[in-house]
Amino acid sequence: MSEALSTALALLIGLDAKLIDIVLLSLRVSLSAVAIAALLGLPLGAAIAVSRFRGRQTVIVLLNALMGLPPVVVGLLVYLLLSRAGPLGALGILFTPSAMVFAQAILILPIIGALSRQAIEDAWREYEEQLRSLGARRMTAALTLLWDTRFSLLTTILAGFGRAAAEVGAVMIVGGNIDGVTRVMTTTIALETSKGDLPLALGLGMILIAIVIAVNAAAYLTKELAQRRYG
Amino acid sequence: MSNGSILPLRLADVSFAVGGRPLIDRVSLEIGAGPSTIILGANGAGKSVLMRLMHGLLSPTSGRIDWNVPERQGAPRKQAMVFQRPVMLRRSAYANVAYALKLAGIREPQRGVLVHESLESVGLLHLARRPARVLSGGEQQRLALARAWALHPEVLFLDEPTASLDPGAAREIESVIKAFDAAGTKVVMATHNLGQARRLGDEILFLDQGRLVERASVGEFFSKPQSVQAAAFIKGELPWA
Amino acid sequence: MGLIRRLFLLAALPAVLPALAQEKFIVVASTTSTEQSGLFGYLLPVFQKKTGIQVRVVALGTGQALDLARRGDADVVFVHARSAEEKFLAEGHGVKRFDVMYNDFVLIGPKSDPAKVSGGRDILDALKKIKSASAPFVSRGDKSGTHIAELDLWKLAGIDIATEKGRWYRDTGQGMGPALNTASAMNAYILSDRGTWISFKNRGELAIAVEGDKRLFNQYGVMLVNPAKHPNVRKDLGQAFVVWVVSPEGQKTIAGYKIGGEQLFFPNSK
Q: CATH for C104-216?
C-alpha cells in the first residue's frame, strides 16, 4: 500500500509526461462521452417524463434496466459495428479515441436518460397544472423543466461521468489500449496489473479516484452555491 | 379572428366523475361579464374541481363547457388561473412573468413593458431581480397574480388564493384582486372564507357535494339564504349568525 | 446556461483536437506477450524515426490477433503460432509469411517444487512428472501462441490433456501476465515465454524450473494482411514495416533489446 502511495506521488510530482497524456486522454474521452450522452439523453428523459403513450411503462423499465449494461458487452457490440467487417467499418474509427467516445456515450446514455426522466417526472408532478394553465404544451414544458431541474440534472451528469471514467471493458475492446493513442487510466491500470506491477497499478488507481472525487466535489460545490442563490 | 369577448361561459349539465364517484354533479350555469363571482362551499364541495373544469385543466365526463368564443390553440389565452399554492420557476421574479408572455408569443420590447406593468401593479417591482423561489409566501402569490394578469385576461380564476397565507399577506392579495376587478377583469374566485366572500364578491355560487345549490347576490345570500345547505353552511362558519 | 454551453464545447473537443488523424500509421495485431516483454517500446520508435510511420499495436492473444486481421481490422500481424499462421495464410488473409525472431518458453514453478522437476532440461519429462504428482498447473487456455505451444507439448509427452486433466490443471483463459499472477497466487507451475517472465514483477514464490529444451523454442512470424481481400489495408506502409523488421537493420535492433543485460529475442529471418 505505502509503495503504491509513494509510486503515485512520484508520478504526480515528477509530472511524468506519459502519465499526463494518459490522464488528459481519459478526461477527454469520458467528458466528450458525457457531453454527447447528455445532449441526447436529457431531452429523451424529459420527453418520456411528460408524455403519455402506450408502452410508456415498458420503455421506462427498459431504460432503467439499460443503466446496468455491462461495459464489456457494449464494447463488443460497438466493436462489431465499427470493425471493417461491420456496418460502420468505412468510418475507420476503430482503435481511435473516437470509438472510445462512441462506446462510452452509448454506455451512459441510459443512465442520463433514466435518471433525468425520474427527476423531471417528479418536477412535472409539481409543475404540471401551473404550466398547462399558462398554456405551455408538453414539449415546451419538458424544456422548461430541463432548465428548472438543472441542479439535480448536474448530479445525473456526474453519475454518467463517474461510470464512464471508471469503466475499462468498453474502451479496452474498441480502443485496443494502444500505447500513446488509446491508452487511458483504466486500461493502463489493467495492463500494469497483468504485468504484475501492482504498486504502479495501485498508484494509478489512486490518481483516478482522486480525479473523480475532484470533479464531483467541484460540481457539488457549484450546485450548493447555485441552489442557495436560486432556491 | 374574432375580437369578441369570451364571456359568457356556459356549463350545460356538466358532470365530473372519478372512479364512478361524481365530484361535480350535473351543474348548469352561465358566467357573464361584470360582477365578481364567488364559488362558495365547504371543503370537498367540489369548488376546485369546478374551477379546473371551467379553466380547462379538466375535461367533463359528461355535459358541455363552452366559451362565447372558442379558445384557439396557440393563441394567447384570454383567461388565466391562480392556484392556492403558487408554483414558480427557478428564475427571477421578472423572468417568471416574462415566461408567461413568451409562451403567448409576446416579443420584446413589448414584453418588457408588460412585465414591468404587471410587477408594478402588485407592488413587486423592487423585487424583480430576486429569485422567485426565495420570496415569501405572500410575495410569491402576488407574483402569481402578476404573472396571470400580465396578458390582461378577460377572466381571472382564483382557487382559494389566500388559504395558505397569513392575514397580512392575505389582505395584500385581496387588495390586488379588488384592483383587478376595478380595472375590468372578470374575477371568479373559489373560497370557503365567508368574510372574504363578502369583501370581494358581488354574487355567490354555492356548491354542496358537487351540486350547484344556490345562486344569489352577496347581500341576499347572507341575509336570506334560500337553501337548507346554504343556511347550515353560513351558520356553521359564523356561529353567531 | 453556462453549463450547457460548456457541454457543447466539450462535445466538440474530439473534432477540434488535432493530430492522430493526419499521421501516417499502421495497425499491427500482435500478442500480449510480445508487447508486455517491452520489445515494441524499444523497437517501434526506431522504425518511426526512420520512416515517420507510427505503429499502433493492438495486443491480444495470437488467436484473437489473427481473427482481428481476418475481419480486416489490422494491417500487419506479428504473432508466434506457426500452425495458426499457416492456416491464416492458406485462407488467403495474408500475403506472405516471414520468420522474424525466436525466443523461448520456460517452465515456471514454485520454489517448493512439489513435482520435483526443478533444474531439469527435459520439458516432456517434467510435464509427465507434474501430471503424476497432480501438482497445480496454470494454463492460459486462450488459444494464444503460448497456449498452443503448451498443448503441443502435452501431446508430445503422450498425454491427452483434454481428457486426462484433473483439478490440478487450471484452465484460466487469461493473458500471460494475468496467468502468471494466478500461478503466483496458487503456487502453481506454468509455461511462460521468457520475455514476459523477465519483466514480471509479482513473482511470489515462483522461479524458473525447466529451460533450454529445444522443444521450448518459440518462433515469431510477420505477415502483411492481404489487400486483395481487405482493400482498406494500408499496404505500402504495412509492407514497409514488414520489410524493415526482417532487414539487417531491423534484425540488429531486435537483438539489441535486453532486460537486465539479457537478450530476449533472437533474430532469425532468412
A: 3.40.190.10
